[in-house]
Amino acid sequence: MRTAYREDLDSFAHDLIVMCDSVQTIMSKASHALLGASLQAAEEALSMADELEEIRVRCEERAVELLALEGPVARDLRQVISSIYIVEDFNRMAALAMHVAKAARRRHPEHAVPERMAGYFTEMARLVTEMAEKTRNILIDPNADAALMLSDDDDAVDDLNDHMLVMLTQREWAYSTREAVDVALLARFYERYADHCVNVAARIVYLTSGLNPDEYLAKRERDEAEADIARRFEELERQFSHRRE
């Protein structure tokens, strides 16, 4: 019975990685469609909706089965609860990526963003791709410290989003209102995608430690301070020992 239970937990964890891979692929194709005005890439991204929904439903069914029939406790319970939230985050990330693909398809054969703004979106696409890959890595090897590092990447995406919004409101904006709206919405899609990566990271922190990120950081600082004090005392003891000798 326990063997089957452990296999179900492992299968759930594997499904999360598969779902993460699908989300990454959708965003990669959507970004290619956006930056390259590629109708084919946009259609390929949108065609993955059914595949993703199948994984989402399977994860949901696994979660219900594990909670209702197995009664997990401690870390296993945290794994199931965290996984339920992670599935929802991935589902939202996929929806945001598909919004990008739809925008590219809607403006085809033209580019959905002005040439002047393409560099910003190229950088945004690079950042969220790296964040998604780091998210995948912490799903494979859950690590609270590695998970917390995604916040730095998210800050970079936020900065780009804020900068573009400022550009849209300046008199020097040389493009149409429609293009301004497109840029604002697309930047928001990428920014929210990055936020959901951070949400997944927070679930991993909870899974590994039972704490939310702020609590974990506070505990880590206390532990580091206590370890530093212990090292200082050890050094003092060694110094006094040498003097007595």
UniProtKB/TrEMBL annotation:
Q: Which UniProt keywords apply?
A: Coiled coil, Cytoplasm, Phosphate transport, Transport
State the coiled-coil residue ranges: 42-69
Localisation:
Cytoplasm
One GO cellular component term, please give it: cytoplasm
Which Pfam families does the UniProt entry name for this protein?
PhoU (PF01895)
Instruction: Tell me where on the tree of life, at the top rank, the source sits.
Output: Bacteria
Q: Does the keyword Endoplasmic reticulum apply?
A: no
Q: What residues does the PhoU domain cover?
A: 19-103, 122-203
Q: Which family does it belong to?
A: Belongs to the PhoU family.
Fill in the subunit field for this protein.
Homodimer.
As for what it does, the entry says: Plays a role in the regulation of phosphate uptake.
List the PANTHER family hit by this protein, alphabetically. Answer: PHOSPHATE-SPECIFIC TRANSPORT SYSTEM ACCESSORY PROTEIN PHOU
Q: Which NCBIfam families match?
A: phoU_full (TIGR02135)
Q: What is this protein called?
A: Phosphate-specific transport system accessory protein PhoU
Organism encoding this protein: Corynebacterium halotolerans YIM 70093 = DSM 44683
